[in-house]
Amino acid sequence: MSQGIEKTINDLQKTFQEYWNNEKLDKLMTLYHPDAVLVGKGQWAVYGRDGIQEKFKSFFADGPLKLTVHPETTVATEDGNYAIQKGQVEFDSAPGKLAPYEQLFKKDSNGHFLIYHDEFEP
């Protein structure tokens, strides 16, 4: 896999973390593909930017919720149009408790990777 793609995805995760931690949900949605799916493994799924944004708003209902993203592995397709990253997320409300995630990124028509499938264990 190209180290360039891994760096691009890791940089995107840093931006995700920044937008999340500052509750900039409108900006956060720009990191998602219009047809993206967010899955709380075994519990629920929401489709599209609007659905994802509403789900994220519910996470902030009880106040700020800071997170730290810990990427572990990133794999890209041979043509470089898709990448999958696995890692863990740590929320400040539960220090030391890591929630596994897996994200599929798809390049858009401008060549930018966007989150296409976002799955985590709540």
Automatic annotation (TrEMBL):
SUPFAM superfamilies: NTF2-like (SSF54427). Pfam families: SnoaL_2 (PF12680). This is DUF4440 domain-containing protein. The lineage of its organism: Eukaryota, Metazoa, Ecdysozoa, Nematoda, Chromadorea. Residues 16-91 form the SnoaL-like domain. It comes from Panagrolaimus davidi. InterPro entries: NTF2-like_dom_sf, SnoaL-like.
